[in-house]
Amino acid sequence: MKLIIDVGNTNVKLALFSKKELVKTIVSEKITQNLISKFCLNTTISSSILSAVRDLNSEESRIVKNFGCKILKHDMRFPVNSKYISMESLGMDRLSAVIGAGCIFPKKNILVFDAGTCLTIDCLDSNMNYLGGRISPGLSMRFQALNNFTDKLPLLSSSKGAKFIGNDTNSSIISGVQNGIIAEVSNFISDYTKQNKDIIVVFTGGDCFFFEKELKISIFADPFLVLKGLNEILDFNE
C-alpha cells in the first residue's frame, strides 16, 4: 500500500493506493498524527509522497517525517516533458493533475481543469508534453471578491439555475459569477479545439461537478485526479 497526501489551500486529502488502484480516501482540514494513524490502521505502507501548495507548519513537518514521506519537489523525475519556463514557479498540484490525466488517457491531447480555490487550465499533448496553461479565480473566490472589495454586495455561493440576466442584486451576482466562469471555460475549450483535434476535457477539484452539470459538452469529472497523478509520480521515482 502507498500513502498519498495532498495538502491544498483549503483541505488535506489522504489516499491509499494498491498499485494503480485507489483503495480509499479521506478529506480533513489539517494533518494530524491521529488522522494518519487511523487512516492507515492495520495497513503496511511501502512508500508515501506528499504534495503541498502551502508551507507546512513545524507539527505537520514532524508528522510527515515520521512517516518517511517523499516531499514532491521540482527536481524529481516526472513522466511528462515540461515546456514550462520555470519549473520552480509551477504548482505541483497542477502538474500532478496533468500526470493523472495522462495516465488515464495515454497518448491523447488533454485539457485539465482544476476547479478549486483557483481555476487552473493545463494542456497536455499526445506526446506527453506539458505545455502550460492559465490561472484565474475559482468559483468561490469570485463570490468572495465581490463581497470583500465592495461595501454593500453580499457574500453568496453557487446556486442552481442561474439566470441569464439577473433581476435583483443577488441574482445579478450569481448570473455574473456563474455564467462568467462558464463562458471563460467554454471559450478556452472552443479556441483550443480549433488548433488541436480530438481533445479530451477532464475536470477535477471541489467544483468539478458544477461544471459537469453546466457545460454543454462532453467532459470527464474525476475528483481524485491529483491523487492519481501523485501516485504515478511516486511510482516513477521508486
Outline the structure in words.
- The protein has helices at residues 33-39, 58-66, 92-104, 139-148, 169-195, 208-214, 225-236, and strands at 2-7, 12-18, 21-28, 47-52, 70-71, 81-82, 109-115, 118-124, 129-137, 199-204, 220-221.
- The chain is of the alpha/beta class.
- Strands 6-9-8-7-10-11 form a six-stranded mixed beta sheet, sandwiched between helices.
- A hairpin with a 4-residue loop joins β1 (2-7) and β2 (12-18).
- The longest helix has 27 residues, at 169-195.
- The two termini are 14 Å apart.
Please give a handful of descriptors for the protein shown.
238 residues; alpha/beta; 6-stranded mixed sheet; 5-stranded mixed sheet; 7 helices; globular
Write the layout of secondary structure elements.
Layout lengths: L1 E6 L4 E7 L2 E8 L4 H7 L7 E6 L5 H9 L3 E2 L9 E2 L9 H13 L4 E7 L2 E7 L4 E9 L1 H10 L20 H27 L3 E6 L3 H7 L5 E2 L3 H12 L2
Helix pairs in contact: 3-7, 4-5
N- and C-termini, Cα separation: 14 Å
Q: Please tell me how large the radius of gyration is.
A: 19 Å
Low-confidence stretches: none
- The amount of helix comes to 25-40%
Q: Whole-number average pLDDT?
A: 93
Give me the strand/helix succession. EEEHEHEEHEEEHHEHEH
The total of helices stands at 7
What form results from the Cα inertia axes?
globular
Q: Estimate the strand proportion.
A: 25-35%
Order of the strands making up the biggest sheet: 6-9-8-7-10-11
Structural class: alpha/beta
Q: How many strands?
A: 11
Largest sheet: 6 strands, mixed
